[in-house]
Design brief:
Blueprint: E1 7-8, H1 15-24, E2 29-37, E3 44-47, E4 64-65, E5 76-82, E6 87-89, E7 97-101, E8 104-107
Parallel strand pairs: 1-3
Antiparallel strand pairs: 2-5, 3-4, 6-7, 7-8
């Protein structure tokens, strides 16, 4: 922001914000968007992001400029993005097979039909 890289404080953060960020980066959506992450760097730039979905630029979302000393070292936003067709297991290294399709995670079923 304003010619410098910085962090977004997690105050008021919503899941839709993560979806917008991932979409802008070329992904199909966010599989998780969480708050309260620690970093010793507190170079925050923005706060209270309020995307509605479909924004083409992150700064198209309503936001507040960060007020110094307002957020602490454990208020960083963390986002994981996903692409259509990505797969995962329900228990990280084992479990049910899921696929990301049509904007949501679903189970893969066995079928003997071709």
């Amino acid at each position: 922001y304003d010619g410098e890289w910085g962090y977004v404080c997690d105050d008021g953060w919503q899941e839709v914000n993560g979806d917008v960020v991932c979409s802008i980066l070329g992904y199909d959506g966010a599989i998780s968007s969480s708050i309260g992450h620690y970093s010793s760097d507190v170079n925050y730039k923005l706060n209270y992001i309020n995307c509605v979905g479909g924004e083409e630029d992150f700064l198209d979302c309503p936001y507040s400029l960060y007020t110094p000393n307002y957020c602490s070292v454990n208020e960083h936003v963390y986002i994981s993005c996903v692409e259509e067709g990505q797969v995962r297991l329900t228990n990280e290294s084992s479990g049910l097979l899921e696929v990301f399709y049509g904007g949501e995670w679903g189970y893969v079923c066995e079928s003997t039909e071709t």
